[in-house]
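User: My collaborator sent over this chain with a note saying "see what the structure looks like." That's all I know about it. Can you take a look?
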Amino acid sequence: MELWVTEYQTPAIGFSCKSTETLRVEQTPFQHLSVINTEQFGKMLLLDGMVMTTEKDEFVYHEMISLVACNSHPQPENVLIIGGGDGGTLREVVRHPAVKNGTLVEIDERVVQASRDFFPSLACAFEDTKSQVLIEDGIKYVKEHKNCYDIVIVDSTDPVGPAVELFSKSFYENVFEVLKDDGMLVVQSDSPYYHPNVVQMAYNGIAGIFPLTKLYLANIPTYPSGLWSFTIGSKKYDPEKLMHEYDDGCRYYTRNLHRAAFNLPALVSKIIANGE
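Assistant: Without extra context I'll predict from the sequence alone. Here is the result:
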């Protein structure tokens, strides 16, 4: 008998993978967590039924949410990651030569443990000498810290469950305060094809607070529609301009791709300019 796992990306479409083994299923204090083995993508982590990461394509998301900001800030010494308990974003941050400290604040310790147990290529970052891992509420954390970080990366799930407030104007305002005077905020801002309202919500929320806001894209096979967006809010520096040329060992990100990722299809430009 074949077993398939389906993520319903909209009420009308689902993304299915053939599963060869169920490795973990549990209800954490915050969300439903499962880890499965798939024939196409290797091990896969799902939260509340949504694909968070897989062994085969995780590098695209983690490189693009991390290195665009780290390479466009002249001194990205102190970087804060909200969410991202699998460790992939932290891995990319701390391997950047200009970064001195990477702080991961994850609300759900079971996500961190699942990564330790099943995704060693991601969890390796937890033991890096540059890393600090805190099991705390990221929303509360940014309220209690001011003028501390050069870059803040919000590596969240979609705006459901514990991640809803991570897309709010009040959260972006608190992040603005936790950043230094030349700081940058990076968020994952969802699929322009399937969830243009989320793209618009994130972009408009950040643009209303930061002097410079830009959106860029990446192709991630296991994320809804494959076309994924990220939004940067910057206090000073243009995120399209490279201050560093680091792309050693990358499998997706390159210096040329950095610039190209900001060249948006007309449909995406329309979403952030005029709404859906």
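A starting point for your reply to your collaborator: The chain has a mean pLDDT of 94.
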